[in-house]
Amino acid sequence: MNEEIKSLAIFDDDEDILSICHYVLQDQGWEVSTFANCDDIVNKLKECKPQVIFMDNWIPPKGGIVATQEIKNDNSLKNIPVIYFSANSEISKLASTAGAEHFLAKPFDLDHLAEAINTVLKLK
């Protein structure tokens, strides 16, 4: 059997962050799906089937907390680890409120991006 495709989804309204993360993670062998909003998030995720989700705090239209809670309330998605990422100084509190497994403070070093992914994959 072929090695499982490594896939992740990134939700952020900052196109630069989406582009940089997409480029870096794709270079590391990830199949990356990026989204600038969280409209219809459950269907978006069911379509791309990620193993890890990055969620921005200020993702339109409803924000990262509500979007993450929608993910965690869906039986087919609730076990996918969510890495909450934001420049907000209260990020650990926001991530906890949202139900995310991990968080990454912005701005972040690109090495920390990979470390965050490895951390949540070990938790699974």
| Strand proportion | 15-25%
Supply the number of helical segments.
5
Task: Report Rg.
Answer: 13 Å
Report the major sheet: 5 strands, parallel
Q: Name the CATH homologous superfamily.
A: Response regulator
Strand order of the largest sheet: 2-1-3-4-5
| Shape verdict | globular
Helix content: 40-55%
Low-confidence stretches: none
Give the beta-strand count: 5
Mean pLDDT: 94
Q: Quick one: CATH class? A: Alpha Beta
Structural class: alpha/beta
The helix/strand series, from N terminus to C terminus, equals EHEHEHEHEH
Which CATH-level-2 architecture? 3-Layer(aba) Sandwich
Question: What does the secondary structure layout of this molecule look like, with pairings?
Answer:
Elements: E1 6-11, H1 15-27, E2 30-35, H2 41-48, E3 52-56, H3 64-72, E4 82-86, H4 91-98, E5 102-105, H5 110-123
Parallel strand pairs: 1-2, 1-3, 3-4, 4-5
Helix pairs in contact: 3-4
Report a brief summary of the structure:
This protein is 42% helix and 21% strand. With 124 residues, the protein is α/β, with parallel strands linked by helices. The chain has a five-stranded parallel beta sheet with strand order 2-1-3-4-5, with helices on both faces.
